[in-house]
Amino acid sequence: MDEDLIEYAPNIPDNVLELIFSYLKLQDLRNCALVCKSWYRFLCDENNEVWRAQCLQKVPTEAFKNDLLSVVPTYKAKLRAFFHAWNPFDCSRHVYIKPNGFTLHRNPVAQSTDGSRGKIGFKHGRHAWEVRWEGPLGTVAVVGIATKDAAIQCHGYYALLGADDQSWGWNLVDNLLLHNGDAHGIYPLLNNAPKYKVGERIRVILDCDDNTLSFEKNYEFLGVAFTDLPDKMYYPTVAAVYGNTEISMVYLGPPLDG
Q1: Overall domain count for the chain
Q2: pTM higher than 0.85 for the full model?
Q3: Above 50 in pLDDT, residue 125?
């Protein structure tokens, strides 16, 4: 960057910054945030016109046609969620990602369990994302995390997520926690725990610092589901068996519980 520009950077008016930044790529904007406090302050406003333009340019128009992104209120947060959404190149061959970029559709294929992973994995920090099942659950509907080594499709109707030592999941149908092919108890730990109803919001909370996985349902914390997770790279993952079911996932960022 030109030294004269750096010298006068703190004095550039916001409307001029907005014009300059509108021509830059995301990586350039990250670098600009390191130039001075003034530019950092400007780019910390996640709803300014720079982030709005980036968001509208990259996030599919279909994603704004319902309340899917209402859980991430700023333009930068919506942009971040899009980069964390389902990976169209890391899902079962019986699954496709809808044009909105956030919703997967499982085709009606008999005797198959099919999953999908998010685009970005996590190894450090605390992360939360929301999962919404839109359609019948069938006999298996598992939400959780997996490494890249976990299978993403198998023959038969099977609790695929949690079937090996590379995945951890909560089966919403029978409320069982699953890992390494075993059931690890009923979840949440309540007498006659209510079953998941289609459309309810599931929030997955991965704490890579404490090595735990937890869940919320309709904004109610259900407790820690798994502890002592090994130090691996984890991806948001689901597994489904019911034909034409759809599952949306929106990355939220660090959980807001402090």
Answers
A1: 2
A2: yes
A3: yes
